[in-house]
Structure formats: structure tokens, C-alpha cells
């Protein structure tokens, strides 16, 4: 799901909504009820979910998914190391046949509330990831996992990132919210944004365009505005704002190029461009464009070098 940094926002091309959406959703609800009724005699595991739903499985396509196989191996290893977590790893990872199913289940558990059921969220997340996507979100998920594993020294494994890194989870939830937003399901997209803000303390407008290979390190307090565009392989630390300068309409948020690193607490404000592979120092306030490969620090930010 590459961000369209160099193009106007209305030039991006996306897949249209599946006309069978309501039929599939109704069928999914029936399957969920059947799964729940068949398992009513067993103890309830808050993390478990019926994984027999073909709606969220595509075993043939993912049989050679090396990232998913690595995650399963890590989950098996962790389960052996900490037997007390074996049930958790089984229901969160090992009982699923694809990364998409596991991620949809994990996000739905995190974002549900008493009036928004996990089953309903799981259904719409699976449909977006498997049937409507065309592969864009799926590729971005794997790119993000690899980016966090390679660029964050605190990440010890892929499964660690998938289950425990709220920056990664917030980013994937945004990808789903953006998916719904561009298909006209704005109410659902905004609801997901709100739940992500409440649960992960990350506030990204669902219209914002975000590339792949993204690292939200720590992530707490990250705010990204409606018309912001973030390129590929970008690293953003906590308390970063990609915001506006007071304009109430139009293209009013930053455009962040590929490979940019934005330090903790930095604010990039207005419809300005931060060039490819630039660095923004912690606590900086950026009000003017930053050239490619430049380093900007201070309030207001000034250029101190190039790389």
C-alpha cells in the first residue's frame, strides 16, 4: 500500500467495494453463531476464536509464507520456554492458518468493547485482509514486521512484534481504517480511529496515507493528520505530530519522504515536504521544507548537516 507522495491525492487508484459484502457478512455471522454454540460446553478462553471459518483462511496462498512460518516457529519456541503461556500462544498464533487471521483476531480482541463485539470486528477485518485487499495491506504488514525486527533493537522476534508492539498494531489498525475510508465506510473508519486512540494512544486520521516498512517506536502520543502522507521505510518515535497550522480545509499536513527518521517529540506542521532520508531531531518544530538527506533540529528547526 505505497503512499502516493509525489501525486495529488485524487490520483491514487484503489479497488472498489465488493458487491457481495452484505451476503458474506451475513454468512459469517451464521458461521460464528454455529462455532460458539458448538463450543459452549467447553471453558471459555477470552483469546480463542473459531478458526474453521473459510472466510478468514487462505491456506494455499499462505503455505509458503516464510514470515508466517517464522512467527509460528517462534511461538512454538516461546511456548516451550514458558509453558504458562502455551494456551495464549496457541489461541493467538498456533490455531490460525495465516498471519491475516491471527492479526485480525488480535486486533479485534484489542479494539472491541461492550457495544462493539470482537466477532463483528474479526469479520470485517478478515474480509478486508483476505477478500477486498488485492494484496496491498498484506504486503505492508510483512514489510512492517521486517522493519521493526531489523530497525528496533528492543524487538526480539517477529511474534514479539505481532503480539506486543502497540506501534505495529496501531499502524495495522490504521491500514484497515484507511481501507474502509477510501471505500466510503467513513463511520466504521472513524470508529476504528477512535478505538486505536483509546487503546494505543495513537491518533491517525483514517484518510492519512502511510507507506510500508513503517516503524512507530514506542508510539505513545503519535498524531498524524488527515491530509498527511508518509512514505516507505519511515521511522517515527513517540509524541511526534504531523499536524496542521490552523487551516480548516484543504491539503494542510506534511508529506514525509521515504526513509525519513523523526525523533521523539518532534512536530512537523503544515503542508510541507520532508525529503527522502532526512532526519528530524527530537523535540524539533519543523515549519519549512527539509531537503533530502538533511538533518534538521531545534525550534524552529534549522539545518545542521547532510548525510
Automatic annotation (TrEMBL):
Transmembrane segments: none
First and last residue of the signal peptide: none
Enzyme class of the recorded protein, top EC level: transferase
Pathway(s) of this molecule: Amino-acid biosynthesis; L-cysteine biosynthesis; L-cysteine from L-serine: step 1/2
PROSITE patterns: HEXAPEP_TRANSFERASES
GO cellular component terms, semicolon-separated: cytosol
InterPro entries: Hexapep (IPR001451), Hexapep_transf_CS (IPR018357), LbH_SAT (IPR045304), Ser_AcTrfase_N (IPR010493), Ser_AcTrfase_N_sf (IPR042122), Ser_O-AcTrfase (IPR005881), Serine_acetyltransferase (IPR053376), Trimer_LpxA-like_sf (IPR011004)
Documented EC number(s): 2.3.1.30
Alphabetized UniProt keyword annotations: Acyltransferase, Amino-acid biosynthesis, Transferase
Pfam families on file: Hexapep (PF00132), SATase_N (PF06426)
Domain Serine acetyltransferase N-terminal residues, every copy: 67-173
Alphabetized GO MF terms: serine O-acetyltransferase activity
GO biological process: cysteine biosynthetic process from serine
Family: Belongs to the transferase hexapeptide repeat family.
NCBIfam families: cysE (TIGR01172), EPS_EpsC (NF041874)
Protein name: serine O-acetyltransferase
Taxonomic lineage: Eukaryota, Viridiplantae, Streptophyta, Embryophyta, Tracheophyta
